[in-house]
Design a protein that fits this description.
By secondary structure, the protein is α/β, with parallel strands linked by helices. It is about 35% helix and about 20% strand. This is Sulfur relay protein TusB.
Length: about 90
Amino acid sequence: MLHLILNSPFQSQALAEALSYLQPEDELVLMQDAVIAAAAPKWCERLAGIPLYVMQDDLQARGLHHGVGIALDMAGLVALIAKNGSPRTWGG
């Protein structure tokens, strides 16, 4: 399953909740304010080893660089959704 996280982990429990439900075959996408997690050392440690993607445009809009995960553009997100089916969205 593909999980889309929308909110900053410093303002919402969406990322923590999603991680508690994550299965080994699942993939995670950080987008909107959730990309902050990919730049925060505390969260980088927690997210290490998880199949993780980070929306590049959202990082750039916030002036951030990711410490974990793979940068993803909109075409890549569409491809992930096509591969995994309807995603589960956390936050919003």
